Amino acid sequence: MRILPLLLLALALAACRTTAEPPRPATPTAVRLSDGAGSLLDVYLSKVGPAGGYFYASRDGAIGRYRICPPYCPNKAKMKEEIRQICRRDYGNQECVLVADGDEIVATVGNWKPAAERVRKAADKPWPTTRPAVRLSDRTGIRLNQYLDRVGTGGGYFYTTRDGTVGTFRTCPEGCRDGDGRMEEAKKQARAECDRKAGYDKCLLIADGDSLLATLGNWERRSAAARDASAGIRLSAGSAELLEEYLGKVGMGGGFFFAAADGQVAAYYYCPAMRCQSHIAMRHKAATDCQGHNDGHECVMVADGARLLVELGDWRPR
């Protein structure tokens, strides 16, 4: 009779151990990411923080889409569903795979390695010492200057033919790198347009954002403000008086004088000593001061030290 209660107790303890045991994890989904989707995953992992986020990819790994929580994220489930639907839509209404939850990779991506690991492996290989060299036509050079005037933190891409006669670009507005595919689409459109205009000869990517990726020996970066002032600047009475003041003060320490393309506003910064702070810092200070007076528009460097750099109409120093 005493055996029965002991047997019942043993069965109860076994049942408790069984229900407390966690379920076995399901086998992670395997997906092979394209180069573009792999790069986007690198971007996502570099941005995602403690608040979390989600990265989805198509089952063939061709595309990737993500969303990241800002510091405060009230409805992560809704955000997860939104990015899943975006990926699904861009994948021809087929289901996508969750690749990352926060900074944790939850799928098997055998061909992809974290960026830090790739950099570590690449350190053992010699870095290329040359960049592609292109000689731009006048028209393509103008278009490259226009592109650099427009491109901002949203990014963009500029393609040209190997002979430099054709140039095409696309820029993205602010927030374009949020993983919804617009950046990838902008790059694809810029290249497709270049290839089409070039008779489907292979085009070269020569600018990614504001970074130049090729050697452009005959081309000179000229901002919109500098191009507007290429024929000279006619200074207003106030700007002319400020230039006289600057020239009376600047000496061996150096300085810089900037003015708006229409000559209405100006600013300067100079060093009264023989040896002074970095000339780069002085130039930046003068340029930003002038830009502040010019409603945020870029100004033109009129003088480096006591040397005048642009034509000033009928103005002459006293």
Structural overview:
With 318 residues, this protein is α+β, with helices and mostly antiparallel strands. The protein has three domains: 35-121, no CATH class; 138-221, no CATH class; 229-308, no CATH class. The protein is built from nine helices and twelve strands. The strands form three sheets. A four-stranded antiparallel β-sheet has the order 2-1-3-4, with helices on both faces. The model is unreliable at 14-25 and 118-129 (pLDDT under 50).
Task: Quickly describe the structure.
By secondary structure, the chain is an alpha+beta fold. It has 9 helices and 12 strands.
- Let me know the number of strands: 12
- Cα(first) to Cα(last) distance is 122 Å
Number of helices: 9
Q: List the uncertain runs.
A: 14-25, 118-129
Compressed to H and E, one letter per element, the order equals HHEEHEEHHEEHEEHHEEHEE
Number of domains: 3
Biggest β-sheet strands, sense, barrel: 4 strands, antiparallel
Class of secondary structure makeup: alpha+beta
Strand content bin: 15-25%
Overall geometric form: elongated
Strand order of the largest sheet: 2-1-3-4
- Mean pLDDT across the residues is 77
Give the proportion of residues in helices. Answer: 25-40%
Rg over C-alpha atoms, rounded to the nearest angstrom? 30 Å
Descriptive key words:
318 residues, alpha+beta, four-stranded antiparallel sheet, 12 strands
